[in-house]
Amino acid sequence: MAAARSPEHLATTTLRHYEHDVLQTITELPAPPVLVGHCLGAVVVQRVLERYRSAPAAVLLSPPPPDHGLALLGALARNDPAALVRGGLGLEARPRPATLVGPATPAEEAAALAGRLDREPVLAALQVALPRRVPAVRTPVLVISGGEDRIVTPATAARTARLLGTRAHLYRGLGHNLLLERGWEDVLQDVLAWLGRTQADARRR
């Protein structure tokens, strides 16, 4: 998801800005879209779904729980404490390549992936960590995460799914950026199959 504000204002961008950006884009589309979000974007999707009830489905990738993301801080403290300290100081909290991927992705590919990362919006990331009200989501939701995710751990993804009334689908060997790692084709195939079943169920109702 693109930030709703220009890059020079990224430090003051909040979840509300992202939410507004997505809702505004939806109004310009010809049909209700399936919403897809990864990590912070998955939190934005959860917030949007509470206000936008016409979405046919949503896919949450490596999603923090809807009530708070404190477990993410603990995971970073264990796996990449330098990134956590930099983020806490308001600096660019670029994780180590090994933090972003699972063992299925070679080191050189992980390094190239890490080099493509943009800066995180500091305030929005802080909002993800702090306590939040659980949104009332009625849209069918698919929760997916890497079985080797070092940021949104499998236990955290499972908790997200439980709070949203579903269960998490974990992919062994994949990490936090599972759609950019080796094996992403299996994830995409499963997402498309789930969307097909969800749409078929909706037509039968």
CATH topology: Rossmann fold
Largest beta sheet: strand ordering: 1-2-3-4
- Determine the CATH superfamily: Alpha/Beta hydrolase fold, catalytic domain
Measured on Cα atoms, how large is the radius of gyration? 17 Å
What coarse outline follows from CA principal-axis ratios? globular
Give a summary of the structure in a few sentences.
With 205 residues, the protein is of the alpha/beta class. Helix content is 46%, strand content 9%.
Written description of the protein model:
This protein is of the alpha/beta class and 205 residues long. It has a single domain (10-18, 33-197), classed as Rossmann fold (3-Layer(aba) Sandwich), CATH 3.40.50. It is built from 9 helices and 4 strands. It has helices at 15-27, 40-51, 70-79, 81-88, 97-100, 107-115, 122-129, 154-163, 184-204, and strands spanning 35-38, 58-61, 141-146, 168-171. The chain has a 4-stranded parallel β-sheet, with helices on both faces. The radius of gyration is 17 Å and the shape is globular. The chain starts with 14 loop residues before the first helix and ends with a helix. The model is unreliable at 1-5 (pLDDT under 50).
Question: How are the secondary structure elements laid out?
Answer:
Layout: H1 15-27, E1 35-38, H2 40-51, E2 58-61, H3 70-79, H4 81-88, H5 97-100, H6 107-115, H7 122-129, E3 141-146, H8 154-163, E4 168-171, H9 184-204
Parallel strand pairs: 1-2, 2-3, 3-4
